[in-house]
Amino acid sequence: MSTVYNPDWASYTLGVFICLSCSGIHRNIPQVSKVKSVRLDAWEEAQVEFMASHGNDVARDTYESKVPPFYYRPTFSDCQLLREQWIRAKYERQEFTHPDKQEPYSAGYREGFLWKRGRDNGQFLSRKFVLTEREGSLKYFNRNDAKEPKAVMKIEHLNATFQPAKIGHPHGLQVTYLKDNSTRNIFVYHEDGKEIVDWFNALRAARFHYLQVAFPGASDADLVPKLSRNYLKEGYMEKTGPKQTEGFRKRWFTMDDRRLMYFKDPLDAFARGEVFIGSRESGYTVLDGLPPSTQGHHWPHGITIVTPERRFLLACETETEQRAWVEAFRKVVDRPMLPQEYAVEAHFKHKP
Predict the structure, then answer these.
(1) Residues in domain PH (predicted)?
(2) Where are the strands (E) in the chain, listed by range?
């Protein structure tokens, strides 16, 4: 985990200071870690001496000596599952001191069953998934004996992000990929927390090795931020159509890098529409409010996105939501575009 400032808790068997949130996870592995309050519990002299001679830096050098560059290191803002599995991998299973234990996500090939949400009926059904770095793809099969996969997802365009609240399961993972340059979503989980986090890191490993080949001069530090990404912002807003004469409709919006997508339902397999949001230099701006003549919106807090082609009119339910969306949009608009992003923008312009 990230550096702990003014921690209130400590593991007196590992010799590390921890935050309140992580102390609960440490309590669940008492065979490895025993926890005390720094201020409220009584400390024996030997325990104090042990803490003084160890500490977080020593523990990091010991227990994190062989973390693969692609392995996701969670921070305090990540979901409980990622934080718990990081702590268990580090201290309980000691995966980062024994590289042979990293095989489930380092081997370049992984297959197994995940519960996948059905596109039409919303039921979760067991499906076989196969990840192969050699073919550069993740596939899933509708039947165990099926010869042909139901879908082939190219590692090049794949992203995975944990979405426990949206999916309604603490181990819920959203995988997105591009099909005909449009985003497709699948929603999966596994009952075993280690299994789904191993899948997540295996996908990151595959992305890492793909990018190493695609960008041979790039350093690990350049590539690691590109392995998977969380969304900049998600939530409901109202939108109107291109003529801006239709009524406003409530839609679920997802801001994924420069793609603003909208869905009828948060768990839809594909977006109703996607908007590319470029940079200020390329003629994109974000304005507070809506044009004075706008009608038909139920929610009062408007946002206007100006692109070189047209204006997109959106409305938020609360001022807090509007401020958060405007901030997210402005972060994207203020960032200069990369050469490859101009190609994506051109494709959006030529969409029917």
Answers:
(1) 107-208, 230-334
(2) 9-11, 16-18, 35-37, 109-117, 124-132, 137-141, 151-154, 159-162, 173-179, 182-189, 233-239, 249-256, 259-263, 273-276, 285-288, 301-306, 311-316
Other Cβ atoms less than 10 A from the Cβ of 84: the count is 21
DSSP 175: E
Q: Which two tokens stand for residue 39?
A: 């201020």
Residue 87's identity, in one-letter code, is: I
Q: Characterize the bridge pairing of strands 159-162 and 273-276.
A: unpaired
Of 202, 208, 210, the C-alpha closest to 223 is 208
The residue among 234, 215, 217 whose CA lies nearest residue 226 is: 215
pTM: 0.90
Can you give the pLDDT at residue 352? 44
List the single range of 95-99, 108-112, 290-294, 329-333 with lowest mean pLDDT.
Answer: 290-294
Query: What pLDDT is attached to residue 313?
Result: 95
DSSP codes, 190-208: -SSHHHHHHHHHHHHHHHH
Rounded-to-integer distance, Cα 182 and Cα 276, Å: 12
Model pLDDT for residues 97-136, shown as the tens digit of each residue: 999 999 999 999 999 999 999 988 889 999 999 999 999 9
